[in-house]
Automatic annotation (TrEMBL), chain A:
Protein name in the entry: Uncharacterized protein
Annotated organism of origin: Streptomyces olivaceiscleroticus
Amino acid sequence: MEQLVKKMAQDDVWQGWVAANSAQKGDKDGCISASPKSGCISATKTGCIS
Amino acid sequence: MTTKTLVTADDLTALLGPALYTELVDHFAAAGDAPREYTERQALECLRYLYLISKYPEELSGLFLPVEQEIDEFWHYLILQTREYRHLCEERLPGRFFIEHRSIPYEEYQREPGREQAAEEALRWIPLYCREFGPFDEGALPHWTVVRFLHEQLDMELREISALEPMPKTGTATATATGTGTGT
């Protein structure tokens, strides 16, 4: 595990790792704009209860 | 010699309850083109993620979301069902505490701990996952970012990944589980 941690911290590997997680951010940006369609509106139609 | 009993998919579905589990899968199955089995696997990995945070708060609370953004959306859906989510957290999951959610981009998250600690935190999930649920299989690859990265970018076999041993404890812990975005 310790060797793997050091390997992941190397420049080239680390950049790939950050990119792998940043891709999630990109997807999320898409989801934010899409959420009023798929999330809030359908939830409103379904109805909310407390 | 004692053998630890693994937590099964049925165990996790039962924690959520069959009605909410079906509702969760139905919601995301209707929203996308993926086969239902894939959506069920997403729901399972979301429940595994929450189970791990609940069982290992000292080790895992406050760490960056180790699963894909789509799994985060399942978590958001559960959070929105406030009564059921609170019941799941406080009555059904092993830690019996409310699992908080906080949105943060990875670029911002990794600045604070630094590379090696952020890498260790990402890898920390692996041995705990395998301890509770058994080794990673191909079906988990689309959902666990760090496992897929090790497999695809560092050419590690799944059995090699699943055999990773935890690092010695460093004693770092915070109180809030961390996801991306602001979707809830």
